[in-house]
Amino acid sequence: MKATGRAWLPIGGLLSFSATPLLAQDSASLLEEVVVTAQKRSESIQDVPIAVTAITSEMKDVMGVLTVDDLADFTPGLSYAATLDRMSLRGVGRLTNNYGSDPGVATYSDGFYTASNTEGNKRPIIVDRVEVLRGPQGTLYGRNSIGGALNIISKRPTEDLQGEVRATAGSYETRIFEGALSGPITDWLRFRSAGTKSEQGRGYFRDVDSAETEGNVSDDLYVEQQLEFNVGDKLDGWIRYAHSEWNQSRRSTISVTPYSIAPSYFGGLFPNSTFNGTPTQSVSVPFTGTNPSIDNHRLYNNDTPARANLDGHHSYVTELIGHLGWADLKYVGGYAASTYSQVTDYDTIQRGPYSTVAGGVQFTIYPQVESFYMEDKEYYSNELNLISTGDGPLQWIVGLYQYHEQVNQHQGIRVPKQPELAAPRTSTSRTSPLGPANPDHNLQISGALLDADARAVFGQIDYDLSSTWKTTIGVRYTEDNKDAEEFRTRVLFGVPGVPHAYYATGEIDRRGLLSGAWHATTGTAGLQWTPNDDSLVFAKYTRGYKSGGFNAGAFAPDRTGYTEPEFINAYELGVKQTFLRRLTANLSVFHYDYKDAQYPSTVRDPVSNINESRFFNLENAVSQGVELEALWAVTDDLQLNLSYSFLDTEIQDTRCFIDGDDTMATVPDARPCGTPGAQTGQLIDGGSLPSSPKNKIAVNANYTWQMPLGALTLSSTWTYRDEAYFSVFSRDYNRAPSYDETDVRLLWNDAENRYTLIGFVRNAFDQEGYEAVGATQTTWGSRTLTVSPTAPRVYGVEAQFRF
């Protein structure tokens, strides 16, 4: 939805990332130094020659930055769709969730790499700060940081005994309980125990035929235990164990077009769910359903509830630092394992059983078709850094890195109420023997057993050329290896003239091997100028890399299941300036030459009629833009914050590609090329990279009234996101319109900082925007459009008590 202009904030004062405790008592603390570890050293954010956004736990409370979606609002150039769990930074990200392909933005939790973005959803009672490093981190972070890196830093044990409890109650039956206790065990050993329990009992979407609701319905648990210790003055250590689990009903995508009636009976593996008969083939019960989502995007009518479960995620992270006098030797290692599963409605309709005769055989069809997904993974990494600690003009860091991941990932389609699917035969013959049992009534199950390994060696030096000029040079060499055994099984039922279910020829536990090895040398070279304590100007070149991969489980022909590595040559100019201790303004201008971006093209399998991916590398793309973050303490009590980005991306590839959502290139804005046929290629040259809105703005204004008993702060945020495409095919059905949102928070903090009360309203004007859109073409040529609406208006109260 277009911006409405209802944002009542003083937009003329739009300015960025925010302060530390906004309930503080004087102007000096409003611009208190924010320390980050973007370069694996503790440095002021204003002294780091990197475009970096830092959100502290205090800022999270005051501004309401609680999820990855919120973080994306306040980070220039960052886009995130919870629907897809994919992050994009300056147009660089990920277009598939297949584990054979990697993310483009690396996520690190206390220095430990993880392939999931959900670490960014940890609550402020757990997290000290979040840092978003914008642009390729080709030296110090390496793995999958071609677009940037997300660092989540936990709160650590304290020297004194401290505790805190929090409780939140809100709309949609939301309840959150949180607690933390920290302090000394001995004079050299400290602990911290913390946990959160959150529930939302009612969802944002409602099934018109039942009391079922979906969309953010959740029952989540997170607990962690930390130990921190010092062995004399030579060794510091820290260990964290964390456990999390989810039970969620995650619906976020709604079909907004009328149900399409199938003109033919059979659909590839199973009869079409919306078949209504023909003059020569009748059905006992016609399908008469209408789509309630057309008129109200909060309604749906399905027969399979959406469910997502994370079962027992366990993670361990260890940090050891040895102080050698002339350098610190730092080790960071971690291990994590989890099992995740998801079930959704495949055909997106509700229909009871119907009977028909096909090929002279009477069939009773139970068209409750489900899609399912499961992953069982474990991964670990080890990193060793040697970091100089001297005061001279030369500072350096060298390191070694190792990573290993094992994933069992599979997905498929099943019809749980179709009894014949439990015992398929081996062929169409009625006398053929029974094949393996199929207790889950699967039509197709496919996936892969994946092993991935990465190793790297890196180094970076910073040298002071003079009191105002410094140069930085870094280099990293990386090797990536991936091996996978893909598998697939297919079962058919309802084939005209064949009364039983049977396995497709050659598709009983079909197996195949995939293997790839890639390597790259990346790095950075930069120059920075600090004419005074309040100014920093930097220019740098960075080479970024993401390993090649493959689409495991699709049995793609030839090399269409593989992708080659991605590379970026990034050029950036940045200015960081502080004015009169009341205003900071950080500006970045960048240009990317983006080679071989990995693109999964959707095609329809001619046998199963199921959409599958084929991988390609785009020849070239350009991403360039301007980003501004600023913070202005207008008075001692009024503060304004701005995050703004302008992003211009362009695909440069003149080849023809099949659009799986418009295979005949018939939509009005289609760009057909090549030879017309059953599938007609289209041009994508000149289109935008997915998830790349041209303009993105976040504004926060907060005012604090100081009183004898405490402080009252009114905080309001306005965010705007420009229209964006969610496919390399820049077509209307892939375009999400622009939208805006206004949030309001009121905070009371007592004079002794013992308790805080927060009242909040998110999306105060109940605006509907779309965090993602898409389309799916049926085998008979109709097109179903889908949208992922943002959350409606939500409100609640939170109480915090510290002791």
3D structure, described in words:
The chain is an all-beta fold and 803 residues long. The protein has three helices and 48 strands. The protein has a 22-stranded antiparallel β-barrel. It has a five-stranded mixed beta sheet with strand order 3-8-9-6-7. Residues 1-29 have low confidence and may be disordered.
Give the helices and strands, then pairings.
Elements: H1 27-30, E1 35-36, E2 43-44, E3 52-56, H2 57-63, H3 68-73, E4 78-81, E5 86-89, E6 105-109, E7 112-114, E8 127-134, E9 148-154, E10 162-170, E11 174-184, E12 189-200, E13 205-207, E14 213-214, E15 217-231, E16 235-249, E17 254-255, E18 299-300, E19 307-323, E20 327-345, E21 354-358, E22 361-365, E23 370-388, E24 394-414, E25 442-464, E26 469-492, E27 502-503, E28 510-529, E29 535-546, E30 549-550, E31 562-563, E32 566-579, E33 583-595, E34 598-604, E35 611-617, E36 620-633, E37 638-652, E38 656-657, E39 682-683, E40 695-707, E41 710-721, E42 724-725, E43 735-736, E44 739-750, E45 755-762, E46 770-777, E47 783-789, E48 794-802
Parallel strand pairs: 6-9, 13-18
Antiparallel strand pairs: 1-2, 3-8, 4-5, 6-7, 8-9, 10-11, 10-48, 11-12, 12-15, 13-14, 15-16, 16-19, 17-47, 19-20, 20-23, 21-22, 23-24, 24-25, 25-26, 26-27, 26-28, 28-29, 29-32, 30-31, 32-33, 33-36, 34-35, 36-37, 37-40, 38-39, 40-41, 41-44, 42-43, 44-45, 45-48, 46-47
